[in-house]
Amino acid sequence: MGENKKLMLAGEWYIADDEELGADSRRREELCRVFNTATDPERRQEALREMLGSVGEGVGIRPPFQCDYGSYISIGARTFVNFNAVFLDAAPITVGADVQIGPNVQLLTPTHELDTDRRRAGWEKALPITIGDNVWLGGGVIVCPGVTIGADTVVGAGSVVTKDLPSGVLAVGSPARVIRRLAGTVEA
Predict the structure, then answer these.
(1) Which residues are CB-neighbours of 32 under 8 A, at least 6 positions away?
(2) What stretch of H or E contains 31?
(3) What backbone phi and psi angles, to 5 degrees, belong to 169?
(4) Catalytic residues
(5) Largest CA distance in the chain
(6) Whether the Cβ atoms of residue 56 and residue 96 lie closer than 8 Å to each other
(7) pLDDT per residue over 127-174, tens digit each?
């Protein structure tokens, strides 16, 4: 494994324009193409299972779907992902079981340098995203690098989640903020 890939997987600053990472991305590009264009449901599921790190039973993803590498994405059983999802997985993305993900949702693990010279040179790092069981992300939600969303939480459409959210709450806005605890959930 090359130095940039080691750094990326360790959550350290790395250069994304790398031959090894490029090869991994080309593998994903071909599998995404097959997934997004296949008319045979079995072939589509086969491409999905080959592309992603882990896919639970009964997972449904509607094309088109895009990701950086695919191999760093884990999706729990019975999770549904609607059209136009973008999962940038330069760090692990872990999605629990029974999660509902609306259309145009973005899970974004990469972050870039604030220093203009280092940003121009291509330095970036990625921080993992974790989505708990039974979460609902409304249409157009953006989840930023390093965020964890607790189980049973609902994030309103169009929200931008910049910080961790606890279990069992309703959060909305940009940046997303908790507006209330949901009935029937246990406080963490």
Answers:
(1) 51, 64, 65, 66, 67, 70
(2) helix 19-37
(3) -130, 165
(4) 112
(5) 50
(6) no
(7) 999 999 999 999 999 999 999 999 999 999 999 999 999 999 999 999
Q: Are 155 and 161 in contact (CB under 8 A)?
A: yes
Q: State what percent of residues in the chain have pLDDT above 90.
A: 95
Tokens of residue 44, six digits:
């589509």
Report helix angle 19-37 to 41-51, nearest 10: 160
Place of tokens 């094309």: 63
C-alpha 134/C-alpha 152 separation (Å) is: 5
Residues 96-124: tens digit of each pLDDT: 999 999 999 999 999 999 999 999 999 99
Closest CA to 56 of 95, 87, 100: 95
